[in-house]
Structure formats: structure tokens, C-alpha cells
Design goal:
The protein is built from twelve helices and twelve strands. It is of the alpha/beta class and 299 residues long. It has two domains: 155 residues, Rossmann fold, CATH 3.40.50; 123 residues, Rossmann fold, CATH 3.40.50.920. It has a seven-stranded mixed β-sheet with strand order 2-1-3-4-6-5-10, with helices on both faces. A five-stranded mixed β-sheet has the order 7-9-8-11-12, sandwiched between helices. Strand 11, helix 10 and strand 12 form a beta-alpha-beta unit. The longest helix has 15 residues. The N and C termini lie far apart (40 Å).
């Protein structure tokens, strides 16, 4: 299976070749993967070096000149470090562009806290009008990037090392019903679906899937959840990030909510992705343990 980072570079390279208004701005990260695009369009594919504020500012400059910029580096260096530029250069000016990250929440956790970014999605949701897309696999990333790169909106596209086993026909604002049950509705986001299904095996639960945090399919969730639902978000970022969206979607019914995501504490250990998932309760076993606790507490 192609990894998302490779797919991001491949799709972006094809868009550079087929659309003369596509520009790519890099900050050392993944430069080798964009070598072909840099050779073919050196005036539209640039590496600014390790200057993340400049990275975002140059991307906004391309947008002001009528280009469709794809701005790429690791999540903590794309969203958190240059957030003022994201907010003002893109958001405040109403410019369209794709901020395409890799590495969140702790894909490169062997590098320590500087490479952790479980708060990236919550931060991007504070930018009015921003789209936030979290594909579950490389094929979905390809579809979402092609669907949004030229739509004139600021879009955060979050690639990750973890992937689901199956791709779905995703779109901004899409929601897929995977299975139906009666005790609760699980909303699995992006690469959390495969492990969520494993965690929910044998339990009487509805599972829905989305790769679109914003926009979110409120109407679709309303149809699935029913009149007195327990809704549990299973999210690959800080737990509770999606809860305001879910609460707004179901504000007309007496719903109960819970969240299974990255615990809201600093991660001080060094380790692989699998080790962090296990230690933080984000693998299938951990999700099942946390889910059973929620079901017991609300029964």
C-alpha cells in the first residue's frame, strides 16, 4: 500500500504538470520526493529552507498572484510554529491554498516533543472558514487533494503514517455508515477506522466514518444517531477536539457525548508510533478498553 506522504508528493507533482496555476512551497521536508516537480517547474516549486513562517507567507504570496499553492512540511512546523501567518496571511485575507502536513500526532515520536502535534486540528479549527480533512489512506488523500486544491478555500490536509485497510469514496463533508447497532454511535475519523472496528467487534454499536472534520456532515449524523444517542468520537488528535462539532450537529436532541483520542497531556517519552499508540490507549486494545469504560459509565 502506498504511504500518504508518497501519495501527497505524487499527486502534487501531477497537478504541477497539468495545471499551470499550481505552486508547491517546501521547507526542506520531503524535498527529495518533489525532485521531478522542481525540475519541471522551478519557478512554481520552491524550497525556502528551514523557515516555516516564510514557508506560509510565500504560499500566501502565490495565492495572491492567482496560484493554487500546496504548502508542505511536518504538522508542528506547518500549523503550530507559523500559526500567525496561517491565521493572517491566509485566513484573514480570505486566500485559498492547501496546507498539507505529515507527522501528526506523533508519527515521528522517536524525535521527541518537537515532532509531536496532537493539537494541530484543534488549532486549525479556530481559523474561520478553514476546511480540515483527515484522510484514512493514500487513495483518499489523492481524491481529497484533487477535489479541493483549486476551490479557493484554505484547506488543511493531514497525512499520517497510520492507514486504514480499506479506502472509501470520500468527499469534503462526507460521512459513511459502516455498520449499525443500538447502544451507541462511534464516529471514527481518518486513520482510526480499522482499529475502531477491531475495538468494537462483538459490541452492539453503530460505526460511521469520516475523513472530513470541517465541513462535517451534521445531517448524516442526525439520521444515524437517533433521538437519544450516545455518540463517541474516535479521533487521531487531542480527545475532545470533535465534540463541539458533534454537539452542534445534535443540538436538537438530548444527546450524550464522549471522546477517545490522544490524551491531553504532554508526551514526554520517546518511542515509535506503535509504542505511543499502545501507551496512550490509541491502539485497538486501548480503544476497546476505553470504549467499554464509557459504555459501563453510561448504561
Amino acid at each position: 500500500m502506498t504511504d500518504m506522504r508518497t501519495q501527497l508528493a505524487a499527486t502534487s507533482t501531477e497537478l504541477v504538470a497539468t495545471d499551470p496555476r499550481v505552486a508547491v512551497v517546501l521547507s526542506e521536508i520531503s524535498v527529495d520526493r518533489f525532485a521531478e516537480a522542481m525540475r519541471s517547474a522551478p519557478h512554481r516549486v520552491v524550497n525556502v529552507g528551514i523557515m516555516e513562517q516564510t514557508l506560509v507567507g510565500v504560499g500566501a504570496g502565490f495565492a495572491m498572484e492567482g496560484f493554487h499553492p500546496i504548502v508542505h512540511t511536518m504538522a508542528p512546523f506547518l500549523v503550530e510554529r507559523p500559526f500567525e501567518q496561517v491565521k493572517l496571511d491566509f485566513g484573514y485575507q480570505g486566500l485559498g491554498g492547501t496546507l498539507a502536513s505529515v507527522g501528526a500526532p506523533y508519527d515521528y515520536g522517536t524525535e521527541g516533543g518537537t515532532h509531536h502535534s496532537p493539537g494541530d486540528v484543534a488549532l486549525m479549527l479556530t481559523v474561520p472558514g478553514a476546511q480540515v480533512l483527515v484522510p484514512g489512506c493514500a487513495a483518499e488523500l489523492d481524491v481529497l487533494l484533487r477535489a479541493t486544491y483549486a476551490n479557493g478555500r484554505l484547506t488543511y490536509l493531514r497525512a499520517s503514517v497510520a492507514q486504514n485497510d480499506v479506502a472509501f469514496d470520500v468527499a469534503p463533508g462526507g460521512l459513511e455508515v459502516i455498520r449499525r447497532g443500538t447502544r451507541a454511535t462511534l464516529v471514527a475519523v481518518g486513520p482510526m477506522l480499522t482499529r475502531t472496528l477491531a475495538a468494537a467487534e462483538g459490541l452492539d454499536l453503530t460505526v460511521v466514518y469520516t475523513a472530513s472534520v470541517a465541513p462535517f456532515d451534521a445531517a448524516g449524523l442526525t439520521l444515524v444517531a437517533g433521538d437519544d444517542p450516545l455518540v463517541v468520537a474516535v479521533e487521531p488528535f487531542y480527545e475532545g477536539t470533535l465534540l463541539p462539532t458533534l454537539a452542534d450537529a445534535l443540538r436538537h436532541v438530548p444527546a450524550r457525548f464522549a471522546s477517545i483520542g490522544v490524551p491531553r497531556r504532554f508526551i514526554t517519552a520517546y518511542g515509535t508510533l506503535a509504542e505511543h499508540d499502545r501507551d496512550l490507549g490509541m491502539d485497538a486494545a486501548g480503544i476497546r478498553r476505553r470504549l467499554l469504560g464509557i459504555l459501563d459509565a453510561t448504561s
